[in-house]
Amino acid sequence: xxxxxxxxxKRFGQFSALHDINLEIPEGELVxxxxxxxxGKTTLLRIIAGLEKADHGRVLLSGEDKTEQHVSHRGxxxxxxHYALFRHMTVFNNVAFGLRVKNRRQRPSEAQIASKVHxxxxxxxxxxxxxxxxxxxxxxxxQRIALARALAVEPSxxxxxxxxxxxDASVRKDLRQWLRNLHHELNVTxxxxxxxxxxxxxxxxxxxxxxxxxxxxQGSPSDIYDHPANEFVSGFIGQTNVFTLDAHDAExxxxxGLQVTQQGAxxxxxxxxxxxxxxxxxxxxxxxxxxxxxxxxxxxxxxxKNTDNDKKTTLFAEMPNEQFKRLQVNKGDPVDLxxxxxxxxx
Amino acid sequence: xxxxxxxxxxxxxxxxxxxxxxxxxxxxxxxxxxFIVLFLCIPLALVMVEAFAKGWQAYWSALILPDxxxxxxxxxxxxxxxxxxxxxxxxxxAWAITRFEFFGKSLLTTLIDLPFSVSxxxxxxxxxxxxxxxxxxxxxxSAHNLKIIFAVPGIVLVxxxxxxxxxxxxxxPLMQEMGSEEEEAALSLGATGWQTFxxxxxxxxxxxxxxxxxxxxxxxxxxxxxxxxxxxxIRGLTNTLPxxxxxxxxxxxxxxxxxxxxxxxxxxxxxxxxxxxxEWRQGKK
Lengths: 346, 285
Fold this sequence. Notes:
Chain A has 346 residues and is an alpha+beta fold.
């Protein structure tokens, strides 16, 4: 089901949580609402679900205006950050809940409910836990049960609020992949909220970047990474080196082979766009190698600009392990830099 | 090596801090137990001794006196009227306070405790001032031939007022701690408001609710001060069991007074046992 939001605004007292949000999400997408904490992403998700009411604006699901409709009639599945499993019910009864509360005419028979619940529990690979209680499960298991429970009512939209926020790093990594595969299998329009840009890039087919209650950019992960719309997006997605074009930075950037004429006042350079070579003439070297860290396949290199003024700012560059070894440089060595490209902002 | 040899000294130092000398322990426990025996056990035993002072026969005949029977019936009636109502009000108040934001919420939260902070006699007087012959609604009530003060409705009303906080006060902290995520989850799964309440909220609060109901019931049956002001002490009509105890005692009917008192004391013991059981059940969860 497609989702269309028009002019959504929401205030909490003096605090403006959302500011005139317009957003269109085509059917079948897996969308990440990404932003720093307090940017309004969870509020927006709750407004789509009907758990919160917008002050202005409309929520359309499949072209139907659902703004005034109660959460129980919207046909959405909601997965909470802290799972919100019913603690007094077994896993089976948790998943069966949405089917059992249907009115008499729509309610399936107990046998149908049982087969459906077991099918869902198999989908999340936890059927063997069906008679346990939520407090007997691990965080990752609870989250998968919460997802099975939400899927039981066959929602046309699946909304997930920081689904991996409360999990260990390793469990989180597994679940991300798993969610992506599940979405591929079910193809139900899904939105998840996250403050982790890596998670958004890895899982989502579309990323919506929010800041201070406004949408900064919407697009595919590669779109957002390669063509950030503004400074905020560029700084929030991935690592970046920031150069402000006062006289010294401009001069220095020229020596790295970057064209700085008339492009903007601020340059953002991704670490992997900085190429390092051993300095041929150490008196003319553009930077000094300060330190490096292993990030698995990549090496992160800390560099200090070799400029006349006192601002010895540190830059970060990244390159594959092997390439770094071939370079044969040590701490304190002068190096030449070649900056391949930058994103320019005014 | 040094760490190893040091360890026992440390442990002993801790042990010394945590374990007072034996005479302190025995002394303090002795004072506590002595206090309980002197002020709780002996009076309770005395009630029983006095009640049976003239034998089973006298005890029994005091209990089956029509006035005593009427007092018991009135006490039960009062409890049966107030406990369900205050269960309902208590849940409603706790729900409103923990689930909604509204103007005057903190005032309401404070007001819930009012019956606890006001002397019961004052509570009784408030109702006399409202519904008594000279009170605000007195003329209107007497014109319509309605009797509230010195009648059963007055007793029920003041008891309702006095016992209002019990259920609400048990539920508010629990429901605050629980949050509303489970309820929101139920709603998002298509449950109606009533289904959410009966299938999700109620099972989660049931032990605290029972605990509140139990305390509310104990107070409803045992309230003296406020009921005394509005009852008018009409024998066989507006005397509850606690009032009946006082009236009998004032008339030098020791056996009658203590026989009725033994019923109330028995009720208190049953309440205590149930309360302990509920606390144990809650602690286990």
